[in-house]
């Protein structure tokens, strides 16, 4: 009987550890895609990236070998294909898209530029003609060997070498690791306006992409730990190297972070494994981050719709704020202090909400940045309402959003046009005030006019109809009008368009 009791205790401990664990080793496996209903998307028409990366820590460079299976889903035959080369935006400190104008605090003498050198572009075993242009050399133009007919596919093979910049930003390295956001050649989107060849603006999140399937192999020194989008399928040692095999189905971008200092803690929440990778060895803050992630996933699953991926990763890294990528978010190490828990919670909640608004329901963040940022900012209010109660949610909205807007707008003049492209914003001040705050006030007005239940119906319907797709402002407004059976012309003019007509 005593032996059985000991055995029971051992089995119980194993079960607990399988649900919540803290370590520096291999993460638990989970299915990459846990929702099988992919919103009537034809799986045979999804592009695929297969990328092999070899990281050299000593020189802070990496080599990439990338095959892209591209399907011509446009309405024309294509003679050319375009890719964004975002690393080239970091060639010059003065021009680098460093968040919140933080480049002013970086010494030009210590700054090491980042850039990408394309070495080969091959189609069907033949090297193609290609050129690099666009603003700051961030566009790769490939001339196809022959026209790619509508509905047909082709494979493009690229080889490249990349130098990482000295920035604690989306892309760059710091004392305790490396952030790999927007780090590889990614296809430009061809839509009703043709190819979108927008520059890497210094304000906002200037990205626009389509969901694709990813298979990524990353080779690093043996002591490096990787956090990434998607699901780490395997992690194997080979001499003094470590090879990570990662899969990411139906995601619109792929990001990762690398550090030898990461502490990992993870927990299964509903059907998703939430993982925290931290460069700060503070168990209380790691636990708090995991709990915030858990509450966020549960809240947004219930209200917006099921999170479709089996893994969600929160990375504590050197970074100026918070940044979202599919399945992974970067959270500033500056917030990992016990007296900043409320700020840490807000940032993690915001970036987690972006998994729904931008990650799963995509949009053109260059042309209509309010569409994901406004919904995401108001998702903070929804989270507080569900987790901390209505009183706290009202206080948060009134003080952090409404009052903040009313106080700051007097300094920005009469320009209240929210729905406009990045090129029309002056800088981070008016961008933040309009795209985040004023846009969130528009969502709150929907709640005030039609009720909380109706707002939740709108958000759920919008999510279900546009998950894995790219939506536009008119799509969101159409959902609002369908659910409420009311014209939104007046609200759109008041909150989004100013004096513009819808």
From TrEMBL:
InterPro entries: Aminopeptidase_N-like_N_sf, M1_LTA4H, Peptidase_M1_dom, Peptidase_M4/M1_CTD_sf. SUPFAM superfamilies: Leukotriene A4 hydrolase N-terminal domain, Metalloproteases ('zincins'), catalytic domain. It comes from the Bacteria. CDD domains: M1_APN_like (cd09604). It holds the Pfam family Peptidase_M1. Residues 291-495 form the Peptidase M1 membrane alanine aminopeptidase domain. This is M1 family metallopeptidase. It comes from Tissierella carlieri.
């Amino acid at each position: 009987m005593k032996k059985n009791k000991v055995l029971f205790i051992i089995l119980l401990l194993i079960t607990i550890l399988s649900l919540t664990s803290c370590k520096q080793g291999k993460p638990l496996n989970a299915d990459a895609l846990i929702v099988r209903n992919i919103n009537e998307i034809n799986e045979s028409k999804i592009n695929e990236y297969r990328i092999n990366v070899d990281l050299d820590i000593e020189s802070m460079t990496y080599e990439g070998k990338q095959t892209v299976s591209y399907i011509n889903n446009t309405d024309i035959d294509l003679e050319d294909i375009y890719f964004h080369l975002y690393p080239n935006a970091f060639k010059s400190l003065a021009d680098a898209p460093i968040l919140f104008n933080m480049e002013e605090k970086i010494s030009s003498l210590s700054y090491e530029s980042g850039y990408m050198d394309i070495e080969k572009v091959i189609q069907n075993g033949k090297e193609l003609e290609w050129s690099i242009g666009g603003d700051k050399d961030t566009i790769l133009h490939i001339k196809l060997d022959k026209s790619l007919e509508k509905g047909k596919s082709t494979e493009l093979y690229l080889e490249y070498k990349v130098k990482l910049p000295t920035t604690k930003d989306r892309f760059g390295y710091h004392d305790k690791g490396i952030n790999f956001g927007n780090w590889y050649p990614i296809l430009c989107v061809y839509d009703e306006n043709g190819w979108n060849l927008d520059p890497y603006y210094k304000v906002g999140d200037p990205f626009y992409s389509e969901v694709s399937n990813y298979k990524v192999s990353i080779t690093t020194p043996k002591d490096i730990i990787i956090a990434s989008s998607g699901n780490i399928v395997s992690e194997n040692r080979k001499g003094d190297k470590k090879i990570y095999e990662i899969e990411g189905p139906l995601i619109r971008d792929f990001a990762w972070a690398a550090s030898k200092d990461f502490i990992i803690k993870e927990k299964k929440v509903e059907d998703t494994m939430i993982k925290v990778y931290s460069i700060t060895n503070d168990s209380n803050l790691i636990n708090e981050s995991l709990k915030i992630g858990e509450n966020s996933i549960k809240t947004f699953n219930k209200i917006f719709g099921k999170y479709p991926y089996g893994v969600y990763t929160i990375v504590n890294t050197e970074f100026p704020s918070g940044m979202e990528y599919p399945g992974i978010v970067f959270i500033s190490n500056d917030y990992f202090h016990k007296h900043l828990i409320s700020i840490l919670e807000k940032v993690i909640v915001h970036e987690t909400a972006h998994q729904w608004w931008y990650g799963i329901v995509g949009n053109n963040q260059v042309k209509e940045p309010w569409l994901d940022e406004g919904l995401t900012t108001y998702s903070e209010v929804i989270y507080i309402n569900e987790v901390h109660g209505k009183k706290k949610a009202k206080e948060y909205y009134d003080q952090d959003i409404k009052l903040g807007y009313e106080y700051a707008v007097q300094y920005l003049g009469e320009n209240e046009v929210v729905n406009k492209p990045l090129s029309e914003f002056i800088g981070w001040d008016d961008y933040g005030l309009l795209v985040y705050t004023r846009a969130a006030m528009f969502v709150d007005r929907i709640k005030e006019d039609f009720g909380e239940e109706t707002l939740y119906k709108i958000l759920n319907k919008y999510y279900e109809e546009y998950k894995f797709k790219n939506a536009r402002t008119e799509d969101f407004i159409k959902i609002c009008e369908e659910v409420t059976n009311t014209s939104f012309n007046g609200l759109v003019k008041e909150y989004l368009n100013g004096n513009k007509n819808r």
